Description:
Elements: E1 2-8, H1 15-28, E2 33-37, E3 51-52, H2 59-66, H3 70-83, H4 85-92, E4 100-104, H5 117-129, E5 131-140, H6 147-164, E6 168-173, H7 188-193, H8 201-205, H9 208-211, H10 214-227, E7 232-234, H11 240-250, H12 261-269, H13 276-295
Helix pairs in contact: 2-3, 3-5, 6-10
Amino acid sequence: xxxxxxxxxxxxxxxxxxxxxxxxxxxxxxxxxxxxxxxxxxxxxxxxxxxxxxxxxxxxxxxxxxxxxxxxxxxxxxxxxxxxxxxxxxxxxxxxxxxxxxxxxxxxxxxxxxxxxxxxxxxxxxxxxxxxxxxxxxxxxxxxxxxxxxxxxxxxxxxxxxxxxxxxxxxxxxxxxxxxxxxxxxxxxxxxxxxxxxxxxxxxxxxxxxxxxxxxxxxxxxxxxxxxxxxxxxxxxxxxxxxxxxxxxxxxxxxxxxxxxxxxxxxxxxxxxxxxxxxxxxxxxxxxxxxxxxxx
Length: 296
């Protein structure tokens, strides 16, 4: 059983920076991490990637050969990757024994709520390689300073969650810079917990550009609230709480633990207060037990 994260989000939300920082943090707490770059437009990687999609297909070559723009080229690349999923599977198999996987995906949001190719790639890997993955959806925190953009981010988060059908964590990135974008209309908790969106209506009505879409905005807010599935956690230098939340969502914390259903329930419902190093030791024992079974 292999665990990992699918890192997505709009361009500029900090996906590559996140993968770099997350891989360093996980290494520090005793996990072997492999970063898989599946963004063919990402040509300046700050991390050492174990698998790079550019070894299979390059966006620049696709754009020239097929006379496509960046968006069309990215869709083509994802289609090509889906058709050549065996290539990716072969690259990943040597990593499955003892690595935690971070998948760095492109920033084109249409890939994750309109098109099926990226989803198909993820689902095929999960089925073939027995992966346990959590989607980490990054959203730039500056969108909170504009009610219209914030509602758009909520819609994107909701549609992506419903489309991918995986454990899903929405993260406000660059939270340390949020005050530089302007004063928030409400406390940060309002935006992370996605509280009563009707309070945003007054601020939207004061915007001449948004006033004529008042009825549409009201209906969209009701859709978001009726589903009641979207909330956010924050991403700052204190990344450990986010890691614990991810571990809980994809089951990493439960792997190798011999306990009753009641004990599992207590862990699932309890606070995020476990010890990383204890978990790492449990995982190591779990992997060694698997090796011994294979040897027998």
